[in-house]
Design goal:
The chain is mainly alpha-helical. The protein has one domain. The chain is 86% helix and 0% strand. 39% of the residues are buried.
Length: 229
């Protein structure tokens, strides 16, 4: 009974940390699922959140290796930039040539790619709480699934009412990508901790602006193509 109390506390700690760290995941899930038909959105959010949690578990097991591998964060940051641009300037939401089932799995795939990248840092705090207990890790993250879905559901509603928030979400992903690239171990070892730390905010701003700029260009080109069709 004495051990039960601390374990319950740790589960709540993992859930709370995951809620705090899953804001960006909820944004990705919402943005990826916003183009789905209403009857498919909930399934997309549930599958997306499930993928996010499974990836958290996998990456937590590999966190030490992943976070110290040179150039991995750079590659991950570039991949996240691509995802952000694709979300804000990608295919038309109403593209009838894409089947609903295909749209659903495309959304889940987008969530999987983005979360795989963003989980590299996030799992560190969760692993610190769970320590060597796989049971605590899995249980705490599994309980967090409905919380992530709820967050994504709220964000989808906001995206539908305020489309400008789509651009804000893409900029957020760009910001995260910029910070991730600069904090790569290869750059830290080359330029030093202090220098790379000073570059984090400028890099984040530059990456966010890059996403917005590329997204704007892709959106204009897509609309021009639709007008000329």
């Amino acid at each position: 009974m004495d051990m039960f109390g601390p374990q319950v506390l740790k589960i709540f700690e993992i859930i709370w940390i995951n809620i705090i760290l899953s804001g960006d995941n909820a944004v990705v899930i919402a943005m990826a699922c916003r183009a789905l038909p209403p009857d498919k959105q909930r399934m997309g959010m549930i599958l997306g959140a499930g993928v996010a949690v499974v990836l958290r578990i996998i990456f937590t097991a590999l966190v030490v290796t992943l976070l110290t591998t040179p150039y991995l964060k750079i590659a991950g940051g570039l991949l996240l930039l691509w995802v952000a641009v694709k979300l804000v300037g990608g295919e038309e939401e109403g593209d009838s040539s894409v089947k609903e089932s295909d749209k659903l799995w495309q959304a889940v795939k987008t969530v999987a790619i983005a979360d795989a990248v963003m989980s590299l840092d996030n799992v560190l705090a969760i692993a610190a709480v769970a320590k060597d207990s796989t049971f605590l890790l899995v249980l705490g993250l599994a309980i967090s699934i409905p919380l992530i879905v709820a967050g994504a559901s709220v964000i989808i509603t906001l995206l539908e009412r305020f489309p400008v928030l789509v651009w804000a979400g893409a900029a957020l992903l760009g910001w995260i990508a910029g910070e991730m690239i600069v904090s790569d171990p290869a750059l830290v070892s080359r330029f030093g901790v202090d220098q790379t730390h000073r570059l984090e905010i400028p890099a984040a701003i530059a990456a966010a602006l890059l996403v917005i700029g590329l997204g704007f260009l892709l959106t204009r080109r897509r609309h021009a193509a639709a007008t000329n069709a």
